[in-house]
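Anyone else keep sequences and structure tokens together like this?

Example one:
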Amino acid sequence: MKFWQTSKRQISLEKTLVMAILNVTPDSFSDGGRFNSIDSALKQTEKLISEGADILDIGGESTRPNSAGVSIEEEKRRVVPIIEAITKRFEIPISIDTSKSKVAEAAVNGGAEIINDVSGLRFDEKIGKVAVKYKTGLVLMHLRGEFETMHTQEPVAEILSEVSNGFCWSIEKAKSFGVTDNQISLDIGIGFSKTFEQNLELLAKLDKLIENFPNYPMLIGTSRKSFIGKILNEPNAEKRLSGGLSSIAIAVFNGAKIIRVHDVKESVDAIRVAEAIKNWSD
């Protein structure tokens, strides 16, 4: 049986995992400021678990276009007390969404067991050391550029080879610190330094990428993103659910093993249907 190793458990990959988003930032693109108190975060956690979330992904720094970075101390102040409160009350695995090693370590000490690094160890490679020290799960996402420029990169010509090369770099860097294969998950980074057409191509050809990286569960995050808004002509991120569910179903059919979402109940239903159909395609 395949599994994803975290610092606290082995998470089975027999079914697609739902990673629920819990942003504790004042400025995230669709839910900023809604869950940045302990009480509101606990209530939302209870709701997400009841709807079928397998993992909770907690972030304290927005990575939306034009967002401003925050200091290490401010990011820790936002996430650590909430992670501590959730782990005291619930058993759900917690992922810390950060690209700073000191934030990651503080979050893990507070109860997180997975580190979700949008930079794939490019912004702060010491995250790899934290993952080894605590034996956490580690999500390596593909992007190009630095924090301030990741949304303004000139597009590359061949996005599949670019993402593949980026994954190879991140995996090699992680392994150089001693991270093991069963700790690593990969994320193609929808919406990060990619054109509208490249986002679509990556989802359409996801199975080809997965064939090249069979040892690592693929995580996909399309929820409420702007490429869906462009297709549907919908500027309001919270009104992109139906389009997001379509992208989730396609990702699961093409082999994604972890889906990162805002809307858990609806996503669980879409995944169930996609898995049922996929089981007849093999």
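And example two:
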Amino acid sequence: MNKFKELVNYCLNCPVKPCTKGCPLKNDIPNFIKLAKEENFLKAFSVLSETTVLSSICGRICPFERQCEGNCVRRLKGEPVQIGYIESVIGDRAIKDNYPLFDTMEEFKGKTVAVVGAGPAGLTCASFLKKLGYNVTIYEKYDYVGGIISHGIPDFRLDKKICDQTFKRILDLGIEVKFNKELGVDISLKELKKNYDAVFLGFGANKSKIPNIKGKNLCNVYGANEFLESKQKLDLNGKNVIVVGGGDTAMDMARVAKHWGANVLVVYRGDEKRMKASNCEIVNAKNENIEILFNTNVKQIIQNKDVYKAYLMTNDGYKFIYPCDYVFFAIGAKTDEKITKKLGIKLDMDGYIKTDKRQMTSISGVFAGGDLIKEKNTVAYASVSGRNAAYNIDNYLKKFDKKSN
């Protein structure tokens, strides 16, 4: 606790709050740190809960150096305040001491909302809708909640016990979850629209982008997103693995393969400064002896019997061959058009769901958020999209009632 006191006392409590401006969720960072200084953890958590329901998780995995900590005034002459760590300590304290997730809950308004997808966008939307007085039912295609948090972030980076405790507190608000219900397979949007007063689509855009190169369909070539989501395990002991990409998913995939005993080479098309992965994840990968090859692209993958080879080319034209057993592409994700095209909703040219400024789709009463609408694909951005959608749905249903009357 002495270390924690030092960390919170290091904060200058800037009145202009540059750290809050850098936070996608707009958490009132100086205020919750000030309350933590005073050891008023209940109130500090209450301040956090005005904007987020995932403090223990976001406090561990957010790319702080590009968001809150990257805007910290202390960073100008030294190290920034460890905002993420402080947030996670407060969130963990709330779990341990069973602080209420919200200070107040509005009375039931007599309206029901369906949320499709139990990832960060869906869980956050459902939580704030419940707070606002709506009955909420989540439809989730798997038999667990969490979405990308549960299947996309390795256990060694995020303690699953913390996740489970966080999710339980959300569902304990009185949110019903119908598991193994995939949109377009087990349930249709038409049914949801008929049975609920509003619908929120937050099932994510997790289909890996694969370059159109020779060998992309070979059996040992995977999209990292789908592979991590499948929770499949491979015997990679002593195998040569290439991971293509420079974001957090690439680092996660590389470290998973390394933990499974593989020799891992990360291939990235740009230089290190252009990598989208958080600095700490790049450092962690390097510390685990994962080699990163910059300014290089995979041009094709060849299989000769059981032997795979990747043809690589540097940005200045140098070509060479790298023997590999598996290749994982982590160069971005897109929507699964097999689902989105069946919804009867207008899409943009890239297949993302089009919404207006209220996050409403081309179908009245149907809203969408997260990376389905091309939001930045981080947990924090998905969460703020879900939270904003909850308030937009609230406004829509209030106006709908006025029109009905």
